[in-house]
Amino acid sequence: MIKHKISSSQFTRLTLSCVIALLCSSAHGQTAQLDTLRKKFNAFRENSLQEKLFIHIDQKLYLTGETIWFKAHCVDGSLHHPIAVSKVAYIEILDRNNQAVVQAKVGLDDGSGNGSIFLPATLASGVYTLRGYTNWMKNFSPEFYFHKEISIINAFRKLEIEKSKPVLKPDAQFFPEGGNLVAGLASNVAFRVIDSKGKGVQFNGWVLNQQNDTITKFKPSAFGMGKFELTPALSDEYTALIEYDGKSSVFKIPDPLQKGYVLEVKDSSESLITINIKATSGSIPVYLFIHARNMVSVASMHILQQGTTTIPIQKAFLQEGISHITLFDQELQPVCERLFFKPVKSKLSVEATTDQDQFGARRKVVLDLKTQNSSQEPVSAKLSVAVVKTDSLQDEPYGAILSYLWLSSDLNGTIETPDYLMNHKGKEVSEAVDNLMLTHGWRRFTWDAILANQKPHLSFVPEYRGHIIQGIVTDSTGSPSSRVKTFLSSPGKNIQVYGSISNDEGLVKYEMKDFKGPRRIIVQTDLTYDSTSRIKIQSPFSNQSVTRSLRDLELSPSLEKDIVSRSVSMQVQDIFYREKNTEIKNTAIDTTAFYGKADATYFLDDYTRFTVMEEVMREYVPSVMVRKRRDGFHFMVLDNVNKSLFRENPLVLLDGIPVFDINKIMEFDPLKVKKLEVITRRYYFGVLAFAGIVSYTTFSGDLQGFPLDPKSVVLDYEGLQLRREFYSPKYETQKVRESRMPDQRRLLYWAPDITTDQDGRYLLEFYTSDVVGKYKVVVEGITNEGVSGSGSCKFSVVSYAN
After folding, report:
1. Each residue's pLDDT tens digit, 32-55
2. Handedness of CA 521, 525, 528, 532 (dihedral sign)
3. Cα 136 from Cα 676, distance rounded (Å)
């Protein structure tokens, strides 16, 4: 055995090499952890396209019998660009029990659409929720849907004027910054105290320990929100004593953890934020991950020195709007989370000015609209404009698209005065926004699913081409039936048939084309092969909801005269302008049959009329052979492509409805048929294929009394909403102005589809009504680049001689 003697210098070099190797190995492992985190987040982002829907409505308070006019904007959740993925938006009005009282489907074109909702007299007075979403958004939490409170008054019923209620105990919530209090570590605790109406209140507060000793005092800075610092002891419990409106209430503060992490974010300067991390552990690695709307801003690793570290972050690295700051421990588990808001500079400036400040009744108003970007350069934008009377009933409407996209859509709960927080500056506003970040929380995703590489369960596909009708096919026992061919159609002269084969869960989907207005749909299987399956059509509206605290509708006795006056105005307009107010906007619809141009077309009036269908087919439809066998009649269509004859029956249609029993067609009166079309080739239709097509169209397009099979499902179904025209009379001459027809419009004008030109300009004209008072113009807009903003102006209508 040979022994080697190692010198001290060799030993030092060897030791240093080992240390370097261990450090490199540790650094490599920590870098790998960070890469893993990035990959998992990117995988989530790629599988989770987010849509946001914003809805601009013309007012906030309505009477039953009036109409809600709205404009919907669908944008992607990251950059807020208008997105053309979904072609349908679902709009609902929900009562306090989250039950839909009115529903509508609205078509979207390039990320926007508009429509109207009539409020029936069956609705009770109260506060309701207007919500909107797309089919794709139904894959995610209903928290992500658009929600807005509206007030509805039913003046046809006896008005129940609410009496003043006693002051109730306020609701108080406490939120340690980063998520948890940790024993022995100083931490900020944010709070939010609201009244029974959900509004923040002013109060005095004290933090007490178990011995009822006062630890600290606190009070809100604005909107019932604020924060205080607390260094909790492990063995102690803490409560908050709140004194509001002369009464005291006690609330529990979250208990501290024995071990853990504390995260503090300070807005240090205009260009820098400072993140302080404290832990009960020693020198260990932690990972900082910052992202905004699924876009990663910062991903870094840090070593705690004696349980603490300070990390400066340049604001330039952060995205505008809400950033989600997450701290992960060495096991890559999230231990602290915190939101931070970077002011939004990319705003659309919308300037609205009228040619006068005061107008007489029935006079022209010229509205000059001007749109600019944040650099004050002209930019083209899509706008919606509402001109509405402001009075004791109708609060002044305000712009909301900017604050919704950048604040409300990403936070939990209802935000008080979001527009004020977005559009004002100063220390008080900055403090209020930061308190909002601490108290309202994040709602877009949870880290558990991301770290587990769980792909979202996507049950609903985006309606990229049009409305999708879904159904479930079951057998005689009620169990789902798979691989069943089904057909959906709607009687009419516009021949459209939709086919679907049920999947393993029995689900069938029909992608509808130009499916608008109330229609009768007929759903059936090929009854010659399948007579036991049943189809149930599902509602396309979401069956999920989120609990929201709605305020009470408060009506003081002094408002009764104003309510009656507005109700009379509404009824006058309905009596004199009902036809104008219900006029449907003409929209071009492709009336070509789904099979395109037929290979052969026969207008039966051009031929000798026969009273028996068999004679018609045999005498002058040479492309269809009629054969009669033991089980009845059969059609065999000529295959012109292969110069042969199909041996199986073609798809036979009557006014677009598939008829599988040829005997019934042969019994039908041919004198009711206007034309006959034949496809003389194999026709492939999605997942289905047909040995040619024979299509009959009656003069009226409504089946003319043809008996449907009793196993067919027949439903009245509401397609996409037919767009109503907003009626605004023009008083261009003195004679028209002197007309005795009353004009009691309080919503003077609604224009949902305004686009400013390349110079950012648009001139809009409308006329005042007979209703005097103050009016406000509210404009909401967005550019193709996702820059949004609002504008407004005021004018008066006075009474003087025309």
Report:
1. 888 888 888 888 887 778 999 999
2. negative
3. 40
